[in-house]
Write a structure and sequence with these properties.
CATH architecture of the largest domain: 3-Layer(aba) Sandwich
Number of domains: 2
Helix content: 40-55%
Distance between the termini: 35 Å
CATH class of the largest domain: Alpha Beta
Number of strands: 11
Order of helices and strands: HHHEHHEEHHHHEHEHEEHEHEHEE
Structural class: alpha/beta
CATH superfamily of the largest domain: Vaccinia Virus protein VP39
Low-confidence stretches: none
Largest sheet: 8 strands, mixed
Length: 330
Amino acid sequence: MESKEWNVGKLLETSGSYWQACTLHAGVKLEVFTLIGEDESSASEIAERSDCDVRGITMLLNALSAMGLIIKKQDKYANTDAGKSLLVKESPRYIGYMIMHHHHLVETWSRLDKAVMTGSPQRMRAYRDEQELESFLMGMFNLAMGIAPQVAREIDLKGRNQLLDLGGGPGTYAIHFCMTNPELKATVFDLSATRPFAEKTIAQFGLSDRIGFVSGNYLEDEIEGTYDVAWLSHIFHGEGPDACQMIVEKAVSAMVKGGLVLAHDFILNDTFDGPLFPALFSLNMLVNTENGRAYSEDQIKEIFEKTGLKNIRRLPFKGPNESGIIMGVV
């Protein structure tokens, strides 16, 4: 990996960069951007709407202004264009759910040293409450909404009839694959807690007649039905190599001859020291899961080969944060 020139300033900037992250998290959690909306408001007005201390909200607003996320005009505050588009809840491009998911991970990440020492996760419970689960699932939806249309255009599913979206969460990819391929039907296979979010999202796109939901745990349950496409997006990184192998074997067992298996994930280079996001994401899996990690392209291809898949190759697609797609044929 190409070396970076470090100095005191860069080291201290990196060390304290969580201050800005926590400031953003607080602004989203307190819905400051949503409360301002299209208007200009004073700190006291925002404090009253958010049930916050005036001194505290003033300091937060000033810091968000210093970060360039809010515009300060004398004693009034207004949203930037980016704030209106990305941080106001009513916006279709809202990414606050993913920001809140990051917020919920801060406490766990603060124990990274212990995870490194012990090799064990530091997250006590997967989701402490429904709000955390909603942040995760809707955060995944927000991110996938920016990627899925491109993926659906780039992957040729012409002539395919049944798609399995394994661990598909709210069904974002299944939705866009079906929108791009009118003859395609899909099944989202995920935990039962995910069902309400998925069915609501699928219904919003008017696809309830073409996309179904099956409750199950892909580590424990067999996959019912027969499919000619299996889409495995961001599920490898939560598991160890043996579990990944088993997941692919289960998917293949539900496929017709000539079916496509597609794995989408953050992919490391084959020396495991880059790109930066997959390397950091591997640490995120260390502190949050028993065996999860980011995988290299060669590792994913090897898993596919051991399952008997043919014509294995990496597709040209490159998503945000170095996500890529490996494809094999049954």
